[in-house]
Amino acid sequence: MFENLGNKLQDILERLQREKTLTDTQVKAAMREIRMALLEADVNFGVAKEFVARVSEKAVGQEVLGSLDAGQMVVKLVHDELIQTLGGESKQPVLKTEGNVVFMVGLQGAGKTTSTGKLAKFYKEKGRRVLLIAADTQRPAAREQLRTLGNQVGVPVLEVANGETPAQTRQRLNEFQQTDFRDLVIVDTAGRLQIDENLMDQLADLQTALQPTETLLVVDAMTGQEALSVAKTFDERVNLTGLIITKMDGDARGGAALSARFVTGKPIYFAGTSEKLTGLEPFYPDRVAGRILGMGDVLGLIERAQQADLQSMETKKAEEFDLEDLLNQLRQIRKMGPLGDLIKLIPGMSRALPEGFSIDEKQIHKIDSMISSMTLKERRNPKILNASRRKRIAAGAGTQVSEINKLVKMHEQMKDMMKMLQRMSGGKGMGGMGKLGAGMKGGRGLQPSQMPPKLPNSRR
Ligand SMILES: Nc1nc2c(ncn2[C@@H]2O[C@H](COP(=O)(O)OP(=O)(O)OP(=O)(O)O)[C@@H](O)[C@H]2O)c(=O)[nH]1
């Protein structure tokens, strides 16, 4: 997601940065290109127009033209404007101590049921007592899907029976609460392929009965900004409070996320980043803007590392990090999401990597079998592997010698990455990184003032 847009914006901005000073004509030309790049990424026309108008206006107002670091100032303006377009400050549902009811609405296939399961996991891990309600009576399989997700997360699921009235559902919820009190109830409602009156009536009735404190529209990023066209109708009938954008891990162009705030007027609370239950992240406009401009997302990386509970990394020094550790960590990291995504969170990496770069998950399996075919001594110091050992290990793992060579190289790169992270944590290992994250304005991400001085070098 955002890869094409990011590359284009970075190219335009890099060109500006190479100039000593900027003329009015240069800035205007760049703004036209930015607008084109946004439109090609399927961003709403009005959003693209306003985006460029605001950056241009500020560029004039701040007397960028003629100033010495004009290019860098434009980068900052674009970065700031991206943050604003994505919603400005990160917003999250405000939960009370008890009595929280979250309604999940959206079109069929948007990812409602999956996101309901993910939210249950997210909040359960925050100490909430969650109950799920499977209210999708249109599609019996959806109730079964939610039951399975509930089992996986370890939260109960109350299933709405066919023909049950909203008042009866309320009654059953009250009875449930008396025997097994829950402070957060998440309701997976019925979806349709298209908006239909009957569905809206049903949702509105259920809403009146259950009185949700949050009503979240789930939208599919792969559908592009078109996915947002339903928001108005949903909002008119059930008063949306926020959005969840799913399938941000796909190759969607970014139009939905970038247009969402402008088109719907609602904040994006969460982004779905995989099919797995762990694939849900609170949405941070500043971090996403940083990723689009190739500035990475160090805080996102730290959070994932912490969640993966990378115990040995806490104490290991980068130089000591060997293939045995890599094997253990890979098994942990795989729980956290695709490695290709993690690497792109490192500042500068999205530009440094070859176009279309991705890590095949099968590749990770292969790495696992390659390391498993080595002796402990070799895992500790892979540089001792001579040609014949590399050949035998490759055969044992069902792969080529070139793959073993790549693995040894990747190990070195990982050590470099760790060195960088450890330097940032003041040499305290990954354990210290949490303190760094917490120290950064409530861990909300890099602020514009903390931007790297230049955009990372392109693939020149
Ligand atoms: N890659 C990816 N796939 C997702 C994500 N969220 C949901 N999906 C997939 O999208 C498909 C549809 O998801 P569901 O949760 O069944 O959709 P729904 O909106 O509940 O659909 P109905 O119950 O039919 O209304 C499933 O295959 C999910 O695994 C995501 O963030 N990333």
TrEMBL record:
<dbReference type="InterPro" id="IPR013822">
    <property type="entry name" value="Signal_recog_particl_SRP54_hlx"/>
</dbReference>
<keyword id="KW-0963">Cytoplasm</keyword>
<keyword id="KW-0547">Nucleotide-binding</keyword>
<dbReference type="InterPro" id="IPR036891">
    <property type="entry name" value="Signal_recog_part_SRP54_M_sf"/>
</dbReference>
<dbReference type="InterPro" id="IPR004780">
    <property type="entry name" value="SRP"/>
</dbReference>
<dbReference type="Pfam" id="PF02881">
    <property type="entry name" value="SRP54_N"/>
</dbReference>
<dbReference type="InterPro" id="IPR022941">
    <property type="entry name" value="SRP54"/>
</dbReference>
<dbReference type="InterPro" id="IPR004125">
    <property type="entry name" value="Signal_recog_particle_SRP54_M"/>
</dbReference>
<keyword id="KW-0694">RNA-binding</keyword>
<feature type="domain" description="SRP54-type proteins GTP-binding">
    <location>
        <begin position="267"/>
        <end position="280"/>
    </location>
</feature>
<keyword id="KW-0342">GTP-binding</keyword>
<feature type="binding site">
    <location>
        <begin position="246"/>
        <end position="249"/>
    </location>
    <ligand>
        <name>GTP</name>
    </ligand>
</feature>
<feature type="binding site">
    <location>
        <begin position="106"/>
        <end position="113"/>
    </location>
    <ligand>
        <name>GTP</name>
    </ligand>
</feature>
<dbReference type="InterPro" id="IPR042101">
    <property type="entry name" value="SRP54_N_sf"/>
</dbReference>
<dbReference type="Pfam" id="PF00448">
    <property type="entry name" value="SRP54"/>
</dbReference>
<dbReference type="InterPro" id="IPR027417">
    <property type="entry name" value="P-loop_NTPase"/>
</dbReference>
<feature type="binding site">
    <location>
        <begin position="188"/>
        <end position="192"/>
    </location>
    <ligand>
        <name>GTP</name>
    </ligand>
</feature>
<dbReference type="InterPro" id="IPR000897">
    <property type="entry name" value="SRP54_GTPase_dom"/>
</dbReference>
<comment type="function">
    <text>Involved in targeting and insertion of nascent membrane proteins into the cytoplasmic membrane. Binds to the hydrophobic signal sequence of the ribosome-nascent chain (RNC) as it emerges from the ribosomes. The SRP-RNC complex is then targeted to the cytoplasmic membrane where it interacts with the SRP receptor FtsY.</text>
</comment>
<comment type="similarity">
    <text>Belongs to the GTP-binding SRP family. SRP54 subfamily.</text>
</comment>
<keyword id="KW-0378">Hydrolase</keyword>
<keyword id="KW-0733">Signal recognition particle</keyword>
<dbReference type="Pfam" id="PF02978">
    <property type="entry name" value="SRP_SPB"/>
</dbReference>
<comment type="subunit">
    <text>Part of the signal recognition particle protein translocation system, which is composed of SRP and FtsY.</text>
</comment>
<feature type="region of interest" description="Disordered">
    <location>
        <begin position="439"/>
        <end position="460"/>
    </location>
</feature>
<dbReference type="InterPro" id="IPR003593">
    <property type="entry name" value="AAA+_ATPase"/>
</dbReference>
<keyword id="KW-0687">Ribonucleoprotein</keyword>
<protein>
    <recommendedName>
        <fullName>Signal recognition particle protein</fullName>
        <ecNumber>3.6.5.4</ecNumber>
    </recommendedName>
</protein>
<feature type="compositionally biased region" description="Pro residues">
    <location>
        <begin position="450"/>
        <end position="460"/>
    </location>
</feature>
